[in-house]
Amino acid sequence: MQKTKILIFGRIGQVGWELRHKLACLGQVTAVEYPEIDFTSPDSIRVAVRAAQPAILINAAAYTAVDKAESDQELALAINGTAPGVIAEEAKRLDSLLVHYSTDYVFDGAKQSPYVETDAPNPLNVYGKTKLKGDEAIQAVGGEFLILRTSWVYGARGSNFLLTMLRLARERSELRIVDDQIGAPTSSECIAQATADILSQLLTPAGGGLDGRSGIYNLTTTGETSWYGFAKELLTQSAAAFGIPVPNLIPISTSDYPRPAQRPANSRLSCQRLTETFGINMPSWEEALTLVLETLAEGASPDKPR
Ligand SMILES: NC(=O)c1ccc[n+]([C@@H]2O[C@H](COP(=O)([O-])OP(=O)(O)OC[C@H]3O[C@@H](n4cnc5c(N)ncnc54)[C@H](OP(=O)(O)O)[C@@H]3O)[C@@H](O)[C@H]2O)c1
Fold first, then answer.
1. Tell me: the pLDDT tens digits for 33-57?
2. Which residues of 99-109 are buried (b: 16+ CB within 10 A; e: fewer)?
3. 109 contacts 267 by C-beta, under 8 angstroms
4. Residues lining ligand 1, judged by CB closer than 6 Å?
5. Which residue, judged by its Cα, is nearest atom 45 of ligand 1?
6. Which of 12, 34, 64, 66 to mutate to test the pocket of ligand 1 (most atoms within 8 A of CB)?
7. 235 half-sphere exposure, CB direction, 13 A CA radius
8. Cβ-based neighbour number of residue 141 at 10 Å
9. Measured on CA atoms in the order 248, 252, 256, 260, is the torsion positive or negative?
10. Between β-strands 186-187 and 97-103, what pairing exists: parallel, antiparallel or unpaired?
11. What gap in Å lies between CA 56 and CA 292, rounded to an integer?
């Protein structure tokens, strides 16, 4: 039997890296990375897709430097806003499924409860605005797609809050962390696992493809915390695992930590639609964190005794 061809854009990003590992059993995975493909060049996207002829196209590439995007709007828009539309056109041409990742930052955070997929977006910053353009471009093309909206992504590799906190904890005795933005830290591993679970359902003979289930789905861990709460938990858990002393943590407000990009106060996303449609039950953010810290504690060495 021929293996399903899966093409991933973004081989070494946080989510892209995990996807390669989680999807290996589902098909023949090809993952491409900048500068082999460059999202500022629609032609490079088209060439890559036409060469691979995938049945499933996954876009894990994005311009994710939220603060830098404020002064780099054109590039952020090309990568986050325009490129997804080109990928969607190519996917439609091949009759393929497109899986794309979006963000809590498409919302302004003014809602007092978790956002659902039908809530009106109103991004506060350039990154969120460009990501929203990408979501809209994919929907306008009208092929088969899943837009998976996630939040506060971190993992054992890449550039993220968890690794920054672990570094700072070694360097400083006191850390001031924002305590008035609420969300769900979501590990890249959980995102990739949930993506694999959805795809494996669609690929079973009885799966029937998306069958009217194209659309936007929130995909985060369960529960909620602030950046301060996340830092406290991760440093407490990692003190035992790595012997790092826990610095004195001071909760501060967003206004005490001015950044170029404004962030939503409420980043909570309801995953009810994901659960009802695909039967996916995400772990709590604390459980997901423990797994990532275990991965870090194990290290990459194959010589480590088990
Ligand atoms: N990080 C978060 O907190 C967060 C939150 C919500 C949603 N998301 C979304 O989740 C998805 C995955 O995010 P992530 O955290 O895994 O991102 P990431 O680690 O920053 O990885 C982004 C990937 O995009 C690639 N890329 C950057 N510029 C490119 C270009 N011009 N052409 C082609 N590829 C390019 C990067 O390549 P290089 O490494 O070579 O630059 C990298 O492989 C994205 O759609 C993101 O918007 C992320």
1. 888 899 999 999 999 999 999 999 9
2. bbbbbbbbbbb
3. yes
4. 10, 12-16, 33-34, 37-40, 60-64, 79, 101, 103, 131, 150-153, 158, 188
5. 101
6. 64
7. 25
8. 19
9. positive
10. unpaired
11. 27
Coil/strand/helix, residue 2: coil
Element (H, E) at 97: strand 97-103
Q: Distance, CA 57 to ligand 1 centroid (Å)?
A: 15
154 is catalytic: no
**Structure tokens, 7:** 């093409």
**pTM, whole model, 2 decimals?**
0.95
In tens, the pLDDT along 272-297 reads 999 999 999 999 999 999 999 999 88
Residue-wise burial string across 111-122, b where 16 or more C-beta atoms lie within 10 A, e elsewhere: beebbebebebe
> What tokens does 236 get?
């407490």
